[in-house]
Automatic annotation (TrEMBL):
Keywords from the UniProt entry: ATP-binding, Nucleotide-binding, Transport
SMART domains: AAA
An example molecular function term from Gene Ontology annotations: ATP binding
Protein name: Peptide ABC transporter ATP-binding protein
Matching Pfam families: ABC_tran
Domain ABC transporter: from-to ranges: 17-251
Family: Belongs to the ABC transporter superfamily.
Source organism per UniProt: Planotetraspora silvatica
PANTHER family, per the entry: AMINO ACID IMPORT ATP-BINDING PROTEIN, PHOSPHONATES IMPORT ATP-BINDING PROTEIN PHNC
Amino acid sequence: MTTQTTSQAPTTHGTPVTFDHVNKRFGRTRVLHDICLEVPGGQTTCVVGPSGSGKSTLLRCTNRLEEPDEGRVLLGDTDVTDRSADIDAVRARIGMVFQTFNLFPYRTALDNITLALRRVRKLPADEAAERARTHLASVGLAGLEHRRPGQLSGGQQQRVAIARALAMEPEVMLFDEATSALDPELVKGVLSIMRDLAGQGMTMIVVTHEMRFAQEAAGQVVFLDHGRLIEKAAPDKFFGAPESPRLQAFLSAVT
Ligand SMILES: Nc1ncnc2c1ncn2[C@@H]1O[C@H](COP(=O)(O)OP(=O)(O)OP(=O)(O)O)[C@@H](O)[C@H]1O
C-alpha cells in the first residue's frame, strides 16, 4: 500500500492548544487533576499512560466532548471552555479520529466525507466530491470511493475516517487510540499516515499505546497516571531517561 498524504489540500498549521489547570470529575471520582499542558502548534504531542488514567477525557476536553469542571482549554486564542463560545465553530477547526471509526454505515466512503463538507463547509456537491476523492486518494483509497464501511477492512475504514477529518482542513487533529481496534497487520498503514501528517507539521494530540510511534513522531510525550500529569518530555528524554519511578515502571511494563 502506498500512502501519499502530500497531495492533500493545504491545512492551516501551527495552532497551539493550551490546557490551563483543567479538572474533571465523573460523579465523585476525580479523573483529571489540575492539568497544565502546552501543546505547541505544528507538532505532535503523544499522551500515554495506563488504562483509566484520563487520556481520552483530556483529549475530549479539547473539543468539549467533555466539559472540564474547572480550568480552561484554549485553541489558539479561543477559549473552548467558555460557555458562550460557538462550539460548532470551534469543532469545525478540530478533526477527531476515534478508535471505533464512527462512519455512517449506510453511506459510501465518498458520502461519509462529502456530508460534512456540504453541511458544515457549505461546499457545492461537485466541489465536495472532488475534495473527498483527493483525500481518499491521499490515504491510499483511490478506487474504493463507492464502498460502504462494511465492505472495507478496519484499516481502510480508519483511513476513511482520517480522510474525512482532513477534508475539513482542520487546524488541529485529535487521535483517540486510532489503531487500538485494528488487527496488527492493519496498524502499520494507519500509523504511516499519522507519521506523514506529523512530518507535515500538523498540530496533533495523539492518545496511543504505540510507544514506537510516540518515539518516532512526537515532539513531546506526556505521561498521565490517575488523572495527573506526571511527566512530559521530548521522546529521547521520555523514553531514554524517564525521571519519575511511576513512568519508569510503566515503560518497563509496556516496552
Ligand atoms: N462518561 C463517563 N462517566 C463516568 N466515568 C467515566 C466516563 N468516562 C470515563 N470515565 C472514567 O474516567 C476515568 C478516565 O477514563 P479515560 O477513558 O479518560 O481513561 P483512558 O486513560 O483514556 O483509559 P483507556 O486507555 O482504557 O482508554 C476512568 O476511570 C473511566 O472509567
